[in-house]
Amino acid sequence: MGNILNFESFETLKESNDKFSNEFDSLTEGIMDAVKSPLKFRKIKKNAKALQKELVTKALLDLEYQKKIKGKSVEQKGTLKAATDAKKKAGDERISGLNQAMDDASTTDGLKSVAAMAKTKAKLGAAKISLKSATASETKAIKQQMKKLTKKAQEESAELKRLAAVGKSKEDSDSKAAKDKEAADAKAAKDKEAEPDTGKNSKADKIDRYKKLLADTEDEEKKKKFQDKIDSLQKESEERFLDPDFIALVESELNEYESL
Fold first, then answer.
1. What is the DSSP letter of 202?
2. Do residues 168 and 69 share a domain?
3. Quick one: pLDDT at residue 251?
């Protein structure tokens, strides 16, 4: 854009930019679920700030022009007007491009709502500046425009709040679902840990092998010995079967009996 404003106007522009940026951030807080595309949202935000800057600059150029022509000749006024109009024309081209860029990025209802709110707020900020340089008849028209823009901005802000509320509700729901799943997974893991191990070298495996020996023998003495082994193993804890020395001892005895 270049340094086309004087220092006073530049300070006004900066103040307006900061106000717009803060309002934009406040109004769009919590609507990421609604906009669907964070990348396009950032593109709209970037172009919205540039659009607001261009619109306010255009209004400030008119204000500067009114101040500069005081006490000037007709010829000097004409020169100043031509220069101001040239700057405003260049600004109009940039404004058109920024509006189009925002429209192109508005591919969801949420993004369209963000873009619409940003455009309205930018126009409203520029209109407030325009009042300072307006004639009596222009002032009336600008105030009517501002009234319409204010109402539109309120409606668009309400829609953004609605979208944010929907997004928060979904976020809370997703969070609850995630916590429920985490709790269910933890319970399943705990239950699995509590289940007896049925693999090789497990308590159940050793007992089953003794039960088979018991079923296969007709020798009463062996039957009593195998039953005693079964009773003894059943009294042992599951953790006992994690002890390699204990497992080796039980396995050795089983192998001896199974080989007979």
1. S
2. yes
3. 86
CA angle 59, 56, 62 (to 5 degrees): 15
> Which pLDDT score is estimated for 180?
60
Half-sphere exposure of 197 (CA within 13 A, CB side): 13
Amino acid at 53: K
Contact 23, 59 (CB under 8 A): no
Per-residue pLDDT, 171: 52
Structure confidence at residue 194 (pLDDT): 46
141-148: average pLDDT: 93
State residue 6 phi and psi, 5-degree precision: -80, 175
> Is the domain of 21 the same as that of 69?
yes
**Residue 89 φ/ψ, nearest 5 degrees:** -65, -45
Q: Which amino acid would we find at residue 222?
A: K
13: containing domain: 7-172
Secondary structure string (H, E, C) spanning 233-252: HHHCCHHHHHCHHHHHHHHH
